[in-house]
Amino acid sequence: MKLLELHIYSFGKFEDFQMTTISSTIHLIYGENEAGKSTLLAFIESILFGFPARHEESYEMNHHGRFGGTLTMESNGEKIVVERTKGKASGDVTIHFPDGSTGDEENLKQLLKGMNRSSFRQIFFCNLNTLNDYHRYDEDGWNQVLYEAGMSGGTSLLAVEKAFDKRQGELFKPGGRKPLLNDELENWETLKKKTNEWAKKNGEYNRIVQNKQQLEGQVSEHTERLEHLRSERRNLDREKRVFPLLKEKRRLESHLSKLPKYKPFPEDGLIRMDKWKEQAVLLSGESESMLKRLQKMKEEMNSFDIMPEWKVFLQDVSYWNEQMVLFRARSEERKELERDLMSIESILGDELDSLGLVREDANHANTSFTAREELKQHIEDRNRSDQEYRYLNESFQSAQEELEKEESEYELLKGRLLSDSERERISNSKIPAGRQKWQGGLVICALLLFIGLGLYESWFLGIASSAIALIGAYLMTLTKENSHGSDHDLLIQDLELRRRVEQAKEQLDRLNRTYIKAAEKVDRWEAERYQIESAIKKWRSSNTFPDTIPLHSVLDSFDKITSIKKRQQNYSHKQRQLEELDYSLKVVEDGIKKVCDDTNITYYYAENAMQLLLQKADEEREAIREIEKLRDQYQSLESQLADINEKLTSCRNEMKELMSIAETDTEEAFRTKGNAQKEAKEILNQLVTIDSQVDESDLCSERISLEEIESELITVEREERSVIKKQQEVYQQLAAEQERMHLLTEDGTYEDLLLQQKQKEDEINALAWKWSVYKVASDLLVKAKAHYQEERLPAVLKKAEHYFNVITEGRYTAIFPPSEGMGFRVMHSGGKAYKPSELSRGTVEQLYLCIRLALASISPIQLPIFLDDIFVNFDAKRTEKAKSFIKEFSINHQVILLTCHIDTTSGLGENIHVLERTTFSTKKVQ
């Protein structure tokens, strides 16, 4: 299975984080410390094997609702997506297969072939932390480290084996004393000895127990008799205490029976009757006073004179007063508009005068964005044409000047040549044969140098070389006879002039061609310039743009005309605003004038009329407030009067109701019955007090005098003291028996010792079972290691041997497993075998890495191998070789390399992802 993509919803520091297109061979993840490399590995483990338990390290973020993510993996050529989100203990997992079907946790276990989190860490994750104590390992330590690296990938088996031995030693050692099982066996022997001793004195113990039980029976009998006597004494004490109360109760009941009829009568009837009668007198006086005040208020309300339609009037005044605020603001706004219109009109006049236009010209001109862009393009074309013309004109003038200069020089050189007759005369003059040959050779040589160097190198070099040759020929002529020397010099000069004439002729032809080309470019420019001028003229006509505006300022004029049109639009808009303001001001004035006419107020202007209306409205409001105030008071007094009358009626009804309850017709009869009821109530209260102190059982007493009660009380107390004395004697005998029993049971009873012996045997059996479990597990582990050493270790070492040979560039050729008391050995190419402790740290780390990779390569399930900073202790050469080896290894097995060293990233291809050290990472990585 290969990892292709991952998407983290929320996990640790990562939130909505994605890594796509992960390489199927080698993929490098670089990040500084705390950048998230360990969190990324923990996420992959959690998706495959479940989220950590709550008490373990938690990567859940409280602020994010969706915890988990997905892994996209390739299995048997098919792409599957494993998704795990927060749910049950280890999370809810869903597998999305290519055919659209889904799977659950069981399907994931089948894909992983039963591998768990611990095996994944030990086989497919490799770092060099195990080798941190490199200098402390002895030979056995190195053998154990390499053995574990090839067997399970970690040190778990070593730890398990040591743990088994430690647990067995803690439980039991033959001949030991501190182990638990040894200590428990000694305690069991001691208990067994005590139990045998108890069996001998068990008869005496049984006799003491029987005697003690008899004494305890006597104690129970005495205790019951004491309880009976104490209960009877308490009853006699109570009868003695309540006897006077019973006597008083009989007297009160006799007096109550002699009173006149007092029932039925209402509770607190006399007090209530006095209360209602007093309230009725007060309420009657308040009612008469209230009627007088109501009559006076009614007369005062009728004295006010207000407008019939005062509500409409107040609403109109309030409305037009609010409108006056807008009226004032609009008046100021109208003045401002008039000033703005005058200002705009002045500016428009100045701008039109500056352009020499009238408003109709500006209105007819097209000032759209498209028209301006077209004009701008035409102006830019014309400016570009001007620049091009300046360049072409300079080139044309330069070509013309050079041509004229070269023509003058050519004519000058041509005039200095010898005539044909003169050349013939000099040529016919005799020159010594030898000298003539040398001179001719030098001239020919000069011509050849001039032509050859001029064609292939440079004309200047040709001229210089030919000049040297001619100077040589000239020096040779110095020895010539006087008659022939002068002619010969003329001939040489003529040859030099002819050569220069030829050169000037060629230069003249070249400059003439340059002049013609410059003239042709000027002609083409004039044609293009004509097209540009025609386009500008056509634009003026199509957009109704005045011809009077100079071309150099047409673009600025275009912007000014655009501004003028906007000002004209603004001017028209403000004129419409002014008309609307005039209309709204007239509406307010007409409304105020109508209200003044309705109220007989003279209208002069809006402000004055509004002040008069507000004054009138205030007067009306004040009158209305006074009337409303009086009306409220009148209504309040009416309500109070109704309440008083209602209370008065209620008082009278209450008085009638009390007499009805008492079944009397007059108030006097009611009061007579009330006095009798009051006296009866006092007697009944005294009876209740007595009853609260006397129980029903006290009423059933057959004793008729206080002396009889006291005599019985003395008899009971005397018998109680006698029973207490007997009880104390029995307690003394019982204490003596308990002491003898205590002496026999200091070390526990026989039953207790038997129980302790049984419990101790159960504890010994439990410890023996635990020791046997560790013993069996330890034996099974030894057998598993032996099986691994015979079958799996050779396969791992065979692959590791090949990897080690490659990564060390053939320096080491073989790895020998432990056998016959000897540990691991590696064979050097020189034929010498070395122990791991004899190797350098870099070589040991190479050996450890090769064994770990070999273990992963033969695993029944192929998952990505995660290598964490494995180059940190390698030198430059070893690092490069290790990189090359891992790249080759990743062809058949996907490798994900984690590092915090930037140098490690070089030479490992382009499949590199950089983790940034931030609080949260939400970057999507391609």
UniProtKB/TrEMBL annotation:
Q: What sequence ranges are listed for the domain YhaN AAA? A: 1-198
Entry superkingdom:
Bacteria
Keywords (alphabetical) are: Coiled coil
Mark the transmembrane ranges: none
Q: Which residues form a coiled coil?
A: 205-239, 389-416, 494-528, 610-661
* Record bears the keyword Ion transport: no
Q: What is this protein called?
A: YhaN AAA domain-containing protein
Q: Which organism is it from?
A: Guptibacillus hwajinpoensis
